[in-house]
Each structure stands twice: as C-alpha cells, then as structure tokens.
Design a protein that fits this description.
Strand content: 15-25%
Largest sheet: 3 strands, antiparallel
Order of helices and strands: EEEHHH
Shape: globular
Structural class: alpha+beta
Radius of gyration: 11 Å
Helix content: 40-55%
C-alpha cells in the first residue's frame, strides 16, 4: 500500500524506502520500511507532503526518487 495515496498495488511495482536517522533512503533489507507508488513518486503535490511529513530536503528526496524510478 502506498503511504501517500493509500491505494493498493502489487509489491513488486512499488518503490520501497525507509527512514534512517534523519534521511529517507532506499530500503536495504534491514529495519522497517514503507512503500510509494510510481504515480505518487511523480506527483509534485504528494512529494511536497512526504517531504514535509518526514522533514526532508526536497531536492535530495526528488533526486532519490528519480534514481529509483529509472
């Protein structure tokens, strides 16, 4: 389930991330994680909401998403 839009998708189609320290990083197999769908990863309004919720740097988070979606 995507944390931004709460829609259900197959797990292999979602982007898996985790909150490590004060940063959001790609999931590495350890710890708790959350999922983000590709529609929300490209929606600027949803990205701003996630950045605000997790107190992230907008530019760094968008770079991470573009790296993971391509």
């Amino acid at each position: 389930m995507c944390i931004a839009c709460r829609s259900r998708h197959p797990q292999n189609t979602l982007i898996r991330l985790k909150h490590e320290g004060k940063e959001i990083v790609a999931f590495d197999g350890k710890g708790r994680s959350f999922y983000l769908c590709h529609e929300c990863a490209t929606d600027e309004k949803k990205i701003k909401a996630i950045v605000k919720r997790f107190k992230q740097d907008h530019e760094q988070f968008t770079k991470l998403l573009t790296k993971l979606t391509t």
